[in-house]
Predict the structure of adenosylhomocysteine nucleosidase.
Amino acid sequence: MKRIGVIGAMHQECEYYREQLSDTRHEQYLDIKITHGRHAGHDVCLLESGIGKVNATLATEWLARSFQPELIINTGSAGAIKGGARIGDFVFASQVCHHDVDVSPIGFAYGELPRLPVFYQVRKKWLNLLNEVANELNDVHHLGVIATGESFIYQQHQVELIRQRFPAVIACEMEAAAVAQVCHMHDIDFLILRNLSDVAGEDAQLNFMEYIEQAGRKSTELVLTLLAAISSD
């Protein structure tokens, strides 16, 4: 049995997951909805954080201090940047970065903050297990860099700028690097897995509204299967 934290930004990314937990109880921290429950023998704490890095930071810090999980999973939706990736595919982060951090004029790499790395690495043991689960489910998935920023990416020039700065990027969203940074500072393992609700720069805002519920449900199903696999492992 493990203590596992799960963070999703939006109601559509959390509601189905909330329904699948047993022995639930609820509380609230600021505007963050918190659900305690159990699944596959694990103690699970699900946080509906709200959109953006500040909300994700608050949620992750609350988990680190109040729940003390062994693993934090950040899940939900993302916009594809990798060529050939389609709505409904999964993206798994091997690394996460901030695509909107720039203190390069004073000697740092683009995306780097003082005393912190440009890229936050996901532990291979969790990635290997996640890949095994996705392969068993025949889910199409892509592995690479997921880039985080405080903007919804819907214009092609935004996509090209992110690609130019981070050539290995496969998707973008608005919370993952904040989750990873807090986990890094607390030495907590993390996983970032997202289902694609849109392709960044290609009618992204319209597709996002149409497919966000599908992305949330598919992400939840994968997380639930992963938790069962962690029990078996």
Q: What stands out?
A: The chain is about 40% helix and 30% strand. The chain has a mean pLDDT of 93. The CA atoms of residues 71 and 189 lie 5 Å apart.
